[in-house]
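Sat 14:20. Reprocessing the chain from the morning session after the first attempt stalled halfway. Input below, unchanged.
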Amino acid sequence: QVQLEESGGGLVQAGASLRLSCAASGRTVSRYAMGWFRQAPGKGREFVAAADWSADVTDYADSVKGRFTISRDNAKNTVYLQMNSLKPEDTAVYYCAARRTMFSSRAIEAYDYWGQGTQVTVSS
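Finished this time. Tokens:
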């Protein structure tokens, strides 16, 4: 089993930056693809970013491309989401997810493990 714990969320003003962390425990995720998803109030969960096991291949939702960067430190069993130029529409609970394959996906159902989420609120 893999446990995922997100951290780094908070309340910021538009234009600010935040870095989310996702620490995995229970077993190494170095050969797992990792993803970030978010859920805004009253909306469904949506794909934000993903990285394959080595982070050589990354994928981003159009809404965050150029502003967000996913990275991973397999030695620390941790994945990051650097979020720059934040907008009020980025306000959501952000979830980290792990997929028991090396290759990432945008599909929620493709992921096997999920964290509890961390709140990001961007004020205008």
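The radius of gyration is 13 Å.
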